[in-house]
Amino acid sequence: MADQYARTPAGAGPPMLPSIRWDEPPEGPVLVLLDQTRLPAEETELVCTDVPALVRAIRALAVRGAPLLGIAGAYGVALAAVRGFDVEDAAERLAGARPTAVNLGYGVRRALDAYRVAVDKGADPERAGAAALAEARRLHREDAEASAQMAAFGLTLLDELLPGGGHRILTHCNTGALVSGGEGTAFAVALSAHRAGRLRRLWVDETRPLLQGARLTAYEAARNGMAYTLLTDNAAGSLFAAGEVDAVLIGADRIAADGSVANKVGSYPLAVLARYHHVPFVVVAPTTTIDLGTPDGASIEVEQRPGQEVTELTAPRTAVAGVEAGGGMPVAPLGTQAFNPAFDVTPPELVTAIVTEYGALSPVTGDGIAELCVRSRQG
Ligand code: MRU
């Protein structure tokens, strides 16, 4: 079951409501999400009391972005455990809610493993639930720490790549506090450049069809007082041609063992443009986004979303409220088929560097990716 509460008008200036939080009102534990389908018009929290509600929220993009999906998945397992639902079934449903962001399955597995270990040691359901929740909280904290480290490494890299300062950065989709336990991935780097007085402009791709750039990144940039300009995705080429982009910074949903990067659809064309115009194309992602089990880009499953998201002008709605995507203003003749992949894949040779919480990898090679994973396992 899900409910909505705590409405506040959206406006300039932090703090924003947390993108995710665990709460324990008298009626029982709940997972509270900042409903990203309602932004930027209003900050509304969505309260999930069970896993089906959370799965609907994930599919409707009320909660989204790779690192946050991992955190949500872990809390979802904890929710099932502490509320006495079937934990194995809940984990399976959560992990399958969206296919591309590897963090979702990773977060689910972390909490599930903690739960299973506790059960194997003879813990009663309450203590096993507490173990799953503690693991979700740990992942949440780790993600915040990784975010701060990526921001620092990313800014150092930018300063090296662009010694003149006054960075003009193009970004795609949304990669800020809305997707993270901290300040995000690519956006966190831009934010640290802003705080250091070295961000001249953040170019924000609107990110068709669900407008994560226009609705969410512009929202976060405005709240942080950053100099930003919104553009249609199609306008990026003109911007490169005019010499107005110094670097591209994006996040990732899955990084394959060979360094191929799946991210929001529209990222790959930016990488091609960046290469043609000799502009660095930098991916910022925690090592939890690396999937050594996926050998290459062709093996990454790309989520296909409903065609209505393209044939109608609409923001994603909360399926929780019983309204699936669609129901917007038609922009194509009735019955038009649409191709609507949520992500695309950029080959490693087009990626200048991948910035993780362990530093920047450049050039991007399979060996380098494997080494990063070894370092992340060593902690
Ligand atoms: O479909 P979404 O909005 O979940 O897609 C999110 C993205 O593509 C982000 O760029 C990606 O998850 C990286 S966020 C750190």
Automatic annotation (TrEMBL):
<comment type="pathway">
    <text>Amino-acid biosynthesis; L-methionine biosynthesis via salvage pathway; L-methionine from S-methyl-5-thio-alpha-D-ribose 1-phosphate: step 1/6.</text>
</comment>
<feature type="binding site">
    <location>
        <position position="98"/>
    </location>
    <ligand>
        <name>substrate</name>
    </ligand>
</feature>
<feature type="region of interest" description="Disordered">
    <location>
        <begin position="1"/>
        <end position="20"/>
    </location>
</feature>
<dbReference type="InterPro" id="IPR037171">
    <property type="entry name" value="NagB/RpiA_transferase-like"/>
</dbReference>
<dbReference type="GO" id="GO:0019509">
    <property type="term" value="P:L-methionine salvage from methylthioadenosine"/>
</dbReference>
<dbReference type="GO" id="GO:0046523">
    <property type="term" value="F:S-methyl-5-thioribose-1-phosphate isomerase activity"/>
</dbReference>
<dbReference type="GO" id="GO:0003743">
    <property type="term" value="F:translation initiation factor activity"/>
</dbReference>
<feature type="site" description="Transition state stabilizer">
    <location>
        <position position="173"/>
    </location>
</feature>
<feature type="binding site">
    <location>
        <begin position="64"/>
        <end position="66"/>
    </location>
    <ligand>
        <name>substrate</name>
    </ligand>
</feature>
<feature type="binding site">
    <location>
        <begin position="263"/>
        <end position="264"/>
    </location>
    <ligand>
        <name>substrate</name>
    </ligand>
</feature>
<keyword id="KW-0648">Protein biosynthesis</keyword>
<dbReference type="Pfam" id="PF01008">
    <property type="entry name" value="IF-2B"/>
</dbReference>
<dbReference type="InterPro" id="IPR005251">
    <property type="entry name" value="IF-M1Pi"/>
</dbReference>
<feature type="active site" description="Proton donor">
    <location>
        <position position="253"/>
    </location>
</feature>
<keyword id="KW-0486">Methionine biosynthesis</keyword>
<keyword id="KW-0413">Isomerase</keyword>
<dbReference type="InterPro" id="IPR042529">
    <property type="entry name" value="IF_2B-like_C"/>
</dbReference>
<protein>
    <recommendedName>
        <fullName>Methylthioribose-1-phosphate isomerase</fullName>
        <ecNumber>5.3.1.23</ecNumber>
    </recommendedName>
</protein>
<comment type="function">
    <text>Catalyzes the interconversion of methylthioribose-1-phosphate (MTR-1-P) into methylthioribulose-1-phosphate (MTRu-1-P).</text>
</comment>
<comment type="similarity">
    <text>Belongs to the EIF-2B alpha/beta/delta subunits family. MtnA subfamily.</text>
</comment>
<dbReference type="InterPro" id="IPR027363">
    <property type="entry name" value="M1Pi_N"/>
</dbReference>
<dbReference type="InterPro" id="IPR011559">
    <property type="entry name" value="Initiation_fac_2B_a/b/d"/>
</dbReference>
<keyword id="KW-0396">Initiation factor</keyword>
<keyword id="KW-0028">Amino-acid biosynthesis</keyword>
<dbReference type="InterPro" id="IPR000649">
    <property type="entry name" value="IF-2B-related"/>
</dbReference>
<feature type="binding site">
    <location>
        <position position="212"/>
    </location>
    <ligand>
        <name>substrate</name>
    </ligand>
</feature>
